[in-house]
Known about the structure:
Elements: E1 12-13, H1 17-26, H2 32-40, E2 50-52, E3 61-72, E4 81-89, E5 92-96, H3 98-104
Antiparallel strand pairs: 1-3, 2-3, 3-4, 4-5
Amino acid sequence: MFINVKEHDNVIYFSSLEEKLKKLNQWGLISEKKMNNLISGKKITEMKSILYKGREVDVEKVCDVIGYISYKTNPGCINPVYETVVIEINGETNKINPAFLKQMQSKDFNLNTFDEENDGIA
């Protein structure tokens, strides 16, 4: 299910292509080599489209990663910050877990293997 971004979510929108590419690499959506090539301009190359394959769309759709939301976790947690990806799809701004979005990029991804409570959506 889509989870729309709310006004109180404090979205951090990307201010540059370099910032976006670094986050995509951090979340495992593009390789470090691809990121460096795109940032440096060494190779004229295009980034592969990021796809959304959720229940709300009848076919996979290209989505645009436009930012993220950063949440502080409990002091005892391993990671002091948790991030949610903010995407634009079908003219709506939504949020999704970066690991789940990464899984969607697999050609073998099948949404039917996930249940409603554990589908990784933020």
